[in-house]
Every structure is written in structure tokens, then in C-alpha cells.
Amino acid sequence: MADVGAPFATSSALLIIAVVCALAAGVWWVRRRRRDARVLESRLARVLERTSTGALTTTGAGVIEWCNPALQQLTGVDWKGRRIEDFFARMEPAPQATLVLESLRGLKSARAPLKWRRADDDEQLRLLVDVQPLGKGEPREDGAIVIVDDHTREFEMYDEMDRARLQLHTREFEMHDEIDRARLQMNSFVEHAPAAMAMFDRQLRYVACSRRWLADFNLDEGIIGRSQAEVLPALSRGWDDIYAAAMAGRIERRDEEYFERVPGDGLYMQWEVRPWHEANGDIGGILMMVTDVTSKVRQKAELEQRNEMLTMRNTVLVALMTEMANPHRTDDEVFRRLTEIFGELLQVDQVGFWVKDESGQLRCLDLFLRREEKHDPSRALPIGTYGEYLTLLERYPLLVNESLESSSCPPDLRAGLESIGVHANLSVPLWKQGQLLGVVCLNQLDAAREWSLDDQAAASSLATLVRLRIEATSRDKAENALRERMTQLEDARQRAESADHAKSEFLATMSHEIRTPMNGIIGFSDLLRQSRLDAEQKGFASTIHSSAEALLTIINDILDFSKIESGMVVLEHIPWDVRETLGDVIELLSPRARDQGVALVVDVNERVPDLVQGDPGRVRQVALNLVGNALKFTEHGHVSLRIDWVDDRLLVEVEDTGIGIPESLRPHLFSRFRQADGSTTRRFGGTGLGLSISRGLVERMGGVLTLDESTERGSRFTFSVPAAAASKEGQSARPLEGFSMLVLEPEPLSRAVLTRQLWRWGARVDATSTLTEALEAMARPGVRFDVLVVADLEEADARTVQLERLAGATQSPVPVVLLTGGGLRGNTPPHVLATLTKPIARSRPLLEALQASRVRAPVNARPEAASRPASPLAGTRALLVEDNVINQRLAQRLLERLGCTVVSATNGLDALAVLEREKFTFVLMDCHMPGLDGYEATARIREKWTATELPVVALTADAMVGQRERCLSAGMNAYLTKPLRELDLLTTLRRLVRSSAA
């Protein structure tokens, strides 16, 4: 028993051990599964934490125990600890959300798309909610997991696609409507188009057509839908290629093609066939447009026919013109040819030309009778019989009478034409210089005729040809007369030129021959007057001198008048000194003014430039003439020369207090050989050319010379000439700034002019008219003058007393600038710094004298000074070349008076020989000498010496036009005409000496 139980015990033990081991293994396996579950759960939690899909878990009691960050971010709420009902409360639609919630509560799976609205911004999310239970399905122990996937963007895209699809369908319906409307509009357009137009589909069935199409092709409105071959077979046969080309997309057109609608009835048409397209771009058919050009084609044919006629007519006209231009053809031959050609060209029975003559008749130039083939030019009709007819011809370019019964045919013409069997008439007037000359008539016999436009144009052309021939004949006669007259005029011109040349030679010869002895008379009489003579002898010498001067004036006037009259005045355009040039005028005439007891005053405005452009010689001549005239007609008072410069024009005014000019005589003042009246000529002398010459010269310079007619006393002449300023560095605008001066001048006008000039230079001036006023001014307390400007009008003894009283008026002597009217002889009075001659023509000597008063240094006067140096050209050597003994003696005496050392030669060869041996400051060269004349001699001098090294001055008695230019072109520096005047000689030589020294 024991043995039997032992194995059983052993087996039980083994069984227990096995059970224990199995239990132990089961425990180990459970624990391991739990550990693996926890690891898996941990990993799943990390995945759910990081996924972008929202997720939450609930307990079996419906409490949310966990939610991942993605759900919090999506909804904006931390759902942990809240109930699941709160989460589904915002879900829409509510019924579907309730079903999902019920499935979750029953631990059943559920899946549904829901909408969820966020509370913060009312944004509605489109979600896909997936509910899955957890555990074994025991609600109290297990919960559920809710997966929330955001499909908002996908749903929005689906919505957008739905809307786009809806819009696409809507647009498709609209396009169909638009296509239908377009079709209706196109059909309406085609129907109402002004041109013939038809629209066909691809089977060439009518889709639409215009009313013009129906009218042009005689069709009814029932053709829509019918084929072209059925409706218009003529536009079907032979057109297959055209239709096929249009269906292929090409455009076919013809400008002109004949179409016969029915036999005997056709038209010319211009057509175009082109495709039309469907909305999808496919060719839907063709569009055919047709224009009826039948009238244009016919007009073109008529025009071509007319052009052919015109060409033929023009050919005829050219031939006729050529024949008319034939100088060998007479008028009768030309007129006969014209009537024949136009009669045949127009197939008219009669062609005739009629002109009015001096006898009062219409004379027939030619009448061609085509049927008889003869001419009848012998007829004449009285003008008075056809008065109404001629009146109508003056009013109208054509008179067209297709029948004499027409109301437009005047009765007088009807009566005349009926008498010769005419039934129709075409009349064209002939005109010459605005006057009715005659008429061209075309007559048709036996029957009326419709005169076409071509007939009328041909008749007008015929009238033109007739008029041209008549005018050519008149012109030939006039040209022959003119040619004869021109021959006569040419002969007269040649005779006049010969006479003018002879006159010029005569004037040149007379100028030379008269001036040569005049040079001796005037020169030696002037020297004689300056010598020691008794009163009677001096009177004789003065008479000789004044008579010679008067004769020279007449000669100069005649020469100047001849130059102006012949247009041979040559003007210069060079820079010249206004004050120096016009100062010569004052200096030349001041002795004459002193002799007459007339004050000669010059006033130069400060704005006048030193140098201007122009002709100084002509300006000087005009000013000399005007001032000389003023002195001639002024016995007391003053003569003033005022110079201004405005807008590049030099203004010169000469005013006097003389006898004046009566108003009735002023219109003739500038006439040639006229003076104010005959008594003036007898009393004062003269040629009456002076003012005429002056105006002529001024006008040649581009200026104006006028008389101021507003003056009540004396006269005032003004002239202005262009004178642009020439560049030159001038002096200071106020060179006497700070100077204090006392002026003593009894003559009011001279005192005013002198005071104004000193003011312009910047000086302070006290102007007085008497010695008493001057002494009172000097005696004023605190007043001191730098210089006294004293005008001397008294004798030498009284002058000395005046100067002594002025010198004694102050403690220290004041420098005096003395202005004398008649020259100063003997020793210079004390304290006299400079002595100048009145009037002060040039301002520079006065300015230099006043400026020198600052250093109290005596200043020698310029050529104006009466007390000029005895030898102003001392130290100079002059070679005088002169063949005339008298002129040589005179020139030598004048040069020696000026301080020159003179060597004489009688011709050019002698002069050249002397120049080889000796040196000279300048040469005075006579132009006309035997042997080698002055021009050739000067040319040889210039081969060795320049114009600066050895100046040459021309001496000539020839004052004609071009002489000065000839001298200068020969190489001479200056030009002096005889008779020689000491002042002109001195001025010219001093200028040359200064230029050479510079």
C-alpha cells in the first residue's frame, strides 16, 4: 500500500511543482504584457501629443480625461476635465452631432462630418469626427477616444469648385444667349445694310440677306434657308472655286464684273466673298457683298470717250498753236485755218469771228461755210443793231441757243440769224484787257442743235485761240514800236553817257584848273592879311580873300551837286572822333563869328561816345554848311551847335538868332538853286545849293535833315545819321571830382554850356557874369577855388586890370584858365595857366588845362589856342613835291610858319632822289605832275618805307568822286584838297606825327 502510494505522492508533487511553475510563468507573462502595454501606451500618447490631428479620450462616465495640443489649438479650449457633452454642444448640424454623441455613450463606433464654431472669432470649422470605444465595452470601466480631423480647407476648396462650376454653367448659358443675340443682330445688320449683302452657311443656304440684295437681284423675302444654286443659278455656275476658297478662309474680290440677272438685263458689280466664323472659331459659312457700279462703269466709258475727244482736240490745238506761231503765216491765213478745222471737228455749218472796229461796226475776220466749203470774210454788221446781244455777251461767258425759238435768244440776234437761215447758235465773247473785243459764232442751219459740253468747251478754246492771235498781232506791233523806241533810247543813253563822261571830265579838269590858281589866291591873301598892312591895305586883302572864298564855295557846291545828282557819292564807314571832327567846324568858323560879333557856342552831350562809325568828312561838310549858313544870316546874338547821341544815331542841331525863315518860303527851302527869296541872294550871295546838298548827303548816309518850324525867332536845323559807337577806352566819367571852380562868362548861353560841361566832369561850379559877382563869390568866408575860368571880352589893358583884381582877391594866387575871343598878343598875364580860344570846340584841351591846375603847371593850348606856340611842328622835316611854282611857294610858306624845315622837289623822280639822300618826317605829294606823278612816286616810296615810317599826304586840286580813295589805295596816308588851309594842314600833319611817334 505504501509502495502503491509512493508513486502517487511523487506524481502529486510533480504536479504541484508543474502548477506552481505554470502559475509563475503566467504571472511573469501577465506582468510582461502589462509592461509592454504601458510602453505602447506611452508611445501612443507621445504620438497623439505630436500629431496635427485633434484627439481626446473620455472615461466611462463621459468625462474628458485627456486632449492633445492639436485639439486645443484647433478649438482654442483646454477640454481636460470637462464633459463630452460640452464638446458636442457647438457641433452642427445638431441632429447628426447628437447621433455621434449617443454612439460614444454606447461605446459604439461612429464617424460623421460636422461643423464646429469657435467662440472667439465665430470661425466655422469643417471637421471629420471619428469615435472609437476603448476596453471591452463596459461603460463604467472603459471610455472612448475621439479623433477630430480638420477638413476646413478641403471643404472650402470643394465649395469654391462648386461655385466656379456654377459660374461656368451660368456663363455658358449667357454665352449661348449672347450668341443668339449676336446672330439676331448680325441678321438685322445684314438685312438693313445699305449694300447688297448675303450670308450663307457651309451648304450655301441663305442665312440672312439685306433688302438691297433683294432689290438688286429682284428677289423676294422667302429665300432664307434656300440654296444659292436654287435662288441665283447665275451666281452658282462657275463660282464653285470662289465659294470653296472662301470656305477655306480666303477672301475673294473683284472690282468690276458683269452679271446678267435675266437675258438682256444685267449690271456691273463690285463684289467680295469672305468667310464668317462661329463662336468657337470655326468657319460657319461665307458672307457675300455686292455693289452696283453700273453707273460708274458707264461714266468711266463716257469719260474715256470724252478724253479721246479731248486728246484729239488738244492735238488739233497744239497743231494750231504751232501754226499760229509761224511768223510767215498772216492773220487771214490763221483765221481761215481755225474756222476750217473747228467746223469739221464740231460738224457745225458755219464758224465765224467778228470784232468791233473804230467805225462802229462788227467786222468779220472770217466766216467759213462748211457745206459750200468756202470763206466769206467780207461782211460787216452795225453794232447798234445788236445792242442787246452785245450786252448779254458782256454778262455771260457763253450764249447757248439750241433753237432760235428759245426765250434766251435776244430778239436782235434772232432777227439777224433768221435772215440767213440759222436755227441754232453758240456765241463766245472775245475779251481783251477787260473789254469786249468781239464774238465767235457757231451756227447750225436747217434744224435746232443741242450744244454739248464738249461743243461749248471747243468753242471756248476756239475763242481763246482767236484772242491769242489778235493779242499776238497787237503785241508784235507794240514790240516793234518798243524795239524802235528802245533803239532810240539806247542812242539817247549813249549820247547822255558821252555827255556825262564829257561833263565829268570837264568838271574834273575845271576843278583842277580852278583850284590851282584859287590855292594861290586864297593862300597868299590869307598870308597877306596876317602881315603888317595899313587899314586900307588890310581891307583890300580881306576883300580878295573873301571873294576867293565865295568863289570856292560856289565851285564846291556845283561839284557836290553834280556828285549827288549822278549818284556818285562814295561814303566811308570808319571810326571817327566826334569832338575832333566837329571841333574843326567850330575852329574854322570861329574867326568869322568873332568878326561878326556873334557868339559861337558848342555843346556836346556827355553820352556822345569818343568814337563812332560813319563818314566823318560828310558829317563835317553838312555841319560846316549849316553853321556857315547860320552865321551868314545872323548879325547879332548867337549860333549854337549841339551834339547828342541816342539809339546809335548822332543828332546834330544848329540853332541861330538870325533873320529866320518866313513860313511861306519854308516848303522851297531844300529845293535846288532856291533861296528864301531873291533879296536874300542879292544881299548874302550863294548858289542856293547848300541845303539841297546837305539833305542829299544826309539821306545818302541813311539820315534825315529837317527844319524845326516851331521856332519863333531865328532858325533851327537838325540832322541825324546812323553812328554806332566804336570801341575805345575813354577817360574817367568824372575826371574833375573834387575841383572847385569859379566861372566868369558874360555871355549867358556860353556860360550855361561851360557850366554844364564842368558839372559833367564832377566839378563844383560857381557861375558869374560880371567881375563884381566873381569878386563877391571869392570873398565869401570859407570859400576857396582851385581854378578860375575867365572869359575875356575886353581890351588888353582892361584884361590886365581884371586879372590883377581877381588875383588880389585871395591871399594866395589862384590859377587862371583864360578863354579869349580874339587872340592874345604880347606877354601872358600873371597867374594865367593856359589861354584857350572861344568857343571851346574840343573839350580835351580845356580838361587838360584844368587838371594841370592841381600842380600849377602852365599848359600850352592846342590848335584852338590863340597864343599857340610859334612853331607847333618845330623839329619836323617836310619834303614838298609840287610842280606849280605858286603852289610850291604857298605850301612852303605855310609849312615854315608851322615850324617845319622844308625841302622842295618838282616831280616824283626828284623826290625819290632826295629821299635817298635825306630823312624826312613826312612828304607832301602833288598828285598830277609831269614825268613821274604822285601816285607812282608814292607806290615806289612804299616799296622802301611803310606808312608809319614815312607818312605821305596827297595835295591835289581834284575834288571829284573817287579821288580820295585813289590816293589812299596808292599808299598815301591823308588827302588834302587845294586851296590849302593852314588849320587843315596843321591838323593833318600833327595827327600823322603823333601816329608815327606812337
TrEMBL record:
Gene3D superfamilies under this entry? 1.10.287.130, 3.30.450.40, 3.40.50.2300, Histidine kinase-like ATPase, C-terminal domain, PAS domain
Q: Which UniProt keywords apply?
A: ATP-binding, Cell membrane, Kinase, Membrane, Nucleotide-binding, Phosphoprotein, Transferase, Transmembrane, Transmembrane helix, Two-component regulatory system
Q: Which GO terms describe its cellular component?
A: plasma membrane
- Occurrences of domain Histidine kinase (ranges): 509-725
Listed under catalytic activity are: ATP + protein L-histidine = ADP + protein N-phospho-L-histidine
Which residue ranges does the record assign to the Response regulatory domain?
740-853, 877-993
- Alphabetized InterPro entries for the sequence: CheY-like_superfamily (IPR011006), GAF (IPR003018), GAF-like_dom_sf (IPR029016), HATPase_C_sf (IPR036890), HATPase_dom (IPR003594), His_kinase_dom (IPR005467), HisK_dim/P_dom (IPR003661), HisK_dim/P_sf (IPR036097)
Q: Which residues carry this modification: 4-aspartylphosphate?
A: D792, D926
PAC domain residues: 253-305
Domain of life, per lineage = Bacteria
Q: Where in the cell is it found?
A: Cell membrane
- Keyword Phosphoprotein attached: yes
- How would you classify this enzyme at the top EC level? transferase
Q: Tell me which EC number(s) this protein carries.
A: 2.7.13.3
- Bilayer topology: Multi-pass membrane protein
User: What does the record give under GO molecular function?
Assistant: ATP binding; phosphorelay sensor kinase activity
Q: Transmembrane region positions?
A: 6-30
- List the NCBIfam families hit by this protein, alphabetically: sensory_box
This protein is called histidine kinase
Species in which this protein is naturally found: Archangium gephyra
